[in-house]
Specification:
alpha/beta, Rossmann fold, 3-stranded antiparallel sheet, 39% helix
């Protein structure tokens, strides 16, 4: 398969827009890189004091922000730095990953330090955030009673993703950079069949979804050297003590490469096409960690006739045009894209 018609790349901005469409306030919308720590770590802090102090010292934060000495709450410290745009979760995870590579530490629960951060810093708080804000189930969160309620849980109608899902046809591809499964849930809501790339052969009669950074419903069993996905799209329940969804996650960090994560490498190597005719970006912000993706984009742009950006911020499209190239169009919203697709170019 050399050419496909449409490839939709979905980023955190798409999930954020979906939350706004549901009528949620800013604090209830899913996070982006800029506010990941502030939104997800309010109820639990995944990093110990030693690593926090080392991170602050390595970045001269104590010298630059002497008021940090008076703060004892790690969440308060990192939230302040994130708000000041002095750090973000990518920089923090980069530091922790490099430290884990140099000084691997196995904790009492059998996890490495970095695995523990993936579980307690991404998977669990993300699922709790969705449960509390999108599904409005605070009572269940307080009880931590996940097992009975996470299967077949009713989601509200995800209208924006459903519109994009209806735009796509069989044998189109979606590359979701999100850990959440909102886009897949929306496909279920409109009865569109889909297949995960890397988990068996791609399908010409379904939408094929590429998730190279992992997903809350992807699992790895290191003991048996197996990987699989749960058809239950919103799930924190592990089928056995050897299966983990945090192991599927490629953490948001600087200069990451797909070949540094086994499942990510399998997924990327399973992409069957050379380029799409129409390359569509929805809610993509091009963060500092995009070096692994930019190589893909540069390859795909060579054969694409059109690159569409669905993003109210035209600066992102201009940046892509400058750094990657291509015939770039920009649309302010999903409705703008669907109503004017192919009719206007402003880049």
């Amino acid at each position: 398969m050399d050419i496909i018609k449409n490839l939709l790349v979905v980023g955190a901005g798409a999930s954020y827009a979906e939350c706004l469409e549901l009528g949620l306030c800013e604090d209830q919308c899913l996070p982006t890189i800029k506010n990941f720590i502030s939104k997800l770590w309010k109820t639990g802090y995944p990093i110990n004091s030693e690593n926090l102090i080392l991170f602050l010292a390595a970045n001269n934060f104590i010298k630059d922000y002497p008021e940090l000495i008076e703060k004892k709450d790690p969440y308060e410290i990192l939230s302040m730095l994130e708000l000041a745009d002095s750090t973000n979760v990518e920089k923090l995870f980069s530091f922790l990953w490099e430290r884990d590579q140099k000084y691997p530490t196995v904790m009492a629960n059998g996890l490495t330090m970095f695995e523990s951060v993936l579980h307690h810093g991404i998977i669990r708080p993300l699922c709790e955030f969705i449960l509390f804000n999108i599904l409005d189930n605070k009572e269940i969160i307080d009880k931590h009673d996940f097992i009975e309620i996470l299967h077949n849980i009713p989601f509200p109608k995800l209208s924006l993703a459903s519109k994009m899902g209806n735009f796509l046809k069989a044998n189109d591809f979606v590359m979701s950079l999100n850990y959440d499964t909102l886009f897949e849930i929306s496909l279920d809501q409109i009865n569109k069949k889909f297949n995960y790339v890397g988990f068996g052969a791609c399908s010409s009669d379904k939408i094929n979804i590429i998730k190279p950074h992992g997903s809350i419903n992807f699992f790895i069993n290191k003991k048996e050297n197996k990987y699989w996905y749960s058809p239950t799209l919103f799930n924190t329940v592990l089928p056995s003590h050897n299966d983990s969804n945090y192991s599927s996650i490629m953490a948001p960090r600087l200069n990451k490469q797909f070949n540094q994560h086994h499942l990510s490498e399998i997924i990327i190597n399973s992409i069957p096409f050379k380029y799409p005719v129409h390359l569509i970006f929805w809610g993509i912000g091009f963060t500092e960690s995009d070096c692994d993706l930019n190589l893909l984009y540069k390859k795909w742009v060579k054969g694409s006739r059109k690159i569409s950006f669905i993003n109210p911020d035209a600066e992102v499209a201009y940046k892509f045009k400058r750094d990657i190239g291509g015939n770039v169009f920009q649309y302010k919203s999903v409705d703008d894209f669907l109503e004017n697709n192919g009719e206007k170019i402003i880049i």
